[in-house]
């Protein structure tokens, strides 16, 4: 049986949605909805792997939903929902906890970065996070996963888990009518510019929600003045911009700003360097402010408008969860059968 192509991706409701989330993930979601059946998930179960204030979690869940809608995702044609509303995510994640190997998880760089020196004090959930991510994707037997560069290793793990499940349960899969194994091996879609947007304060660190400096990122809800201020204050170096990409070598801040411009203008980096090469950063930053305000401000405004009616957002999430259940529940029944659980 040939599987239909299906896209799954998620964003954590951990506040401070930023330009990296927008360019690295959300704009890709918007494009993919033209060609695929898509599920876009607000991954609240992932969010609680680090402490979240319950009221803020609810607010942030609605805010990510508002960002999806404001960016142009069609919630009628595609599915927008929050992860905790579909219990199959947690159930399949438990099965995957028993499929994935400790050695595999020990290699995950994101856990090392997030737990830092405080590893003993990190939650078990933070450690097992990639298994839950594999469950998110595979519960829907999704084939394609648009993500930023930082998620590549987790996607590879999801493929390893799918492969091991298919092998461990090969006879049982075949007996249930899945001779080629139950799960597809999902493919990451990490394409185009801005797959890794860097901090405006340090071109070697990823732009991130949890960076304590608000100047390090452009938030999707920033108004025009804040965007202008952050771009003006963005770290640069004393040299003028180069005319060719080779000249960006060893200049991470310049490379980052060119990458951001390129993604927002939908023009190649070479094209932008040909225009701004030899000119000072101050000139380039003026053009970048205009472009960023033009791209981000209307989305922020629409997000604020949508957030005025939380009931409407909750209704969209509930409708999406109902449709996600319709896909997930039959899959979960097949998975229970394959694993050998007696279903009463
Ligand atoms: N800087 C980035 N550049 C490009 N893509 C990015 N993504 C995140 N940061 C960048 C992509 O956004 C999607 C959602 O990410 P997430 O919310 O699930 O978690 P994250 O990657 O942990 O986001 P942050 O901002 O980096 O949060 P913290 O500070 O908590 O670690 C993913 O597709 C991700 O690749």
Task: Give a short synopsis of this structure.
The protein has 344 residues and is mainly alpha-helical. It is built from 14 helices and 5 strands.
Structural class: mainly alpha
Helix content: 40-55%
Count of extended strands: 5
CATH topology value of the largest domain: Rossmann fold
Q: Gyration radius, to the nearest Å?
A: 21 Å
Q: What is the 3D form?
A: globular
Number of domains in the coordinates? 2
SSE succession:
EHEHHEHHHHEHHEHHHHH
* Average residue pLDDT: 96
CATH classification class of the largest domain: Alpha Beta
SSE blueprint:
Layout: E1 6-11, H1 19-32, E2 37-42, H2 44-47, H3 54-71, E3 79-82, H4 88-97, H5 102-106, H6 109-115, H7 124-139, E4 144-146, H8 152-168, H9 170-175, E5 187-189, H10 224-233, H11 252-265, H12 269-276, H13 281-307, H14 310-339
Parallel strand pairs: 1-2, 2-3, 4-5
């Amino acid at each position: 049986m040939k599987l239909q192509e299906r896209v799954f991706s998620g964003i954590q409701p951990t506040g401070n949605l930023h330009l990296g989330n927008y360019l690295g993930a959300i704009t890709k979601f918007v494009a993919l909805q033209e060609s695929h059946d898509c599920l876009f998930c607000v991954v609240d179960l992932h969010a609680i792997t680090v402490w979240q204030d319950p009221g803020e979690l609810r607010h942030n869940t609605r805010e990510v939903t508002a960002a999806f809608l404001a960016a142009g995702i069609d919630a009628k044609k595609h599915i927008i929902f929050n992860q905790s509303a579909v219990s199959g995510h947690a159930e399949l994640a438990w099965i995957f906890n028993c499929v994935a190997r400790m050695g595999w998880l020990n290699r995950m760089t994101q856990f090392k970065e997030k737990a830092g020196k405080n590893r003993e004090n990190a939650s078990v959930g933070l450690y097992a996070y990639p298994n839950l991510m594999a469950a998110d994707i595979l519960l829907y037997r999704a084939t394609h996963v648009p993500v930023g560069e930082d998620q590549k290793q987790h996607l590879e793990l999801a493929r390893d888990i799918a492969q091991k499940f298919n092998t461990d349960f090969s006879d049982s899969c075949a007996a249930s009518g899945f001779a080629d194994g139950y799960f597809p091996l999902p493919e990451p879609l990490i394409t185009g510019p801005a797959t890794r947007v860097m901090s405006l304060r340090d071109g070697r660190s990823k732009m991130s929600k949890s960076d304590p400096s608000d100047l390090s990122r452009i938030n999707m809800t920033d108004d025009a003045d804040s965007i202008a201020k952050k771009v003006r204050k963005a770290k640069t170096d004393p040299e003028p911009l180069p005319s060719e990409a080779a000249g960006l070598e060893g200049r991470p801040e310049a490379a980052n700003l060119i990458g951001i411009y390129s993604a927002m203008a939908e023009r190649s980096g070479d094209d932008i360097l040909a225009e701004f090469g030899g000119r000072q950063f101050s000139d380039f930053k003026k053009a970048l402010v205009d472009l960023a305000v033009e791209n981000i401000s209307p989305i922020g405004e629409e997000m604020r408008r949508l957030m005025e009616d939380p009931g409407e957002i909750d209704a969209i999430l509930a409708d999406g969860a109902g449709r996600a259940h319709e896909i997930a529940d039959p899959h979960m029944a097949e998975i229970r059968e394959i694993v050998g659980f007696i279903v009463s």
